[in-house]
Amino acid sequence: MVWLFLVLATLGSSWLAGHHSFAGEWTAVFVMLVAYAKARAIMLYFMDLRAAELPWRLSFEAWGLASAAVIIALWLQAANA
């Protein structure tokens, strides 16, 4: 089921990226949130982070959230400049 989510998320974000008028300047934010969800699914299910010790899992979760947050913040700042 995870692979189906990854495929559908990839197709959906590709479609959304090609249709900027659908979400306007928020398109990049939506695509980045989908990318974060995909990265998290890969870390949890294909890298077996679900079974990792709590410090490892928290560090990877924090890294993913921080990366997505920084990219989204920079995008929004650039879009409003």
From TrEMBL:
Protein name per its UniProtKB record: Cytochrome C oxidase subunit IV
Keyword Transmembrane found: yes
Pfam families: COX4_pro
Membrane topology summary: Multi-pass membrane protein
GO cellular component: plasma membrane
Location in the cell: Cell membrane
TM annotation in the entry: 26-46, 58-78
Keyword Transmembrane helix on entry: yes
Main subcellular location: membrane
Keywords carried by this UniProt record: Cell membrane, Membrane, Transmembrane, Transmembrane helix
Highest taxon in the source lineage: Bacteria
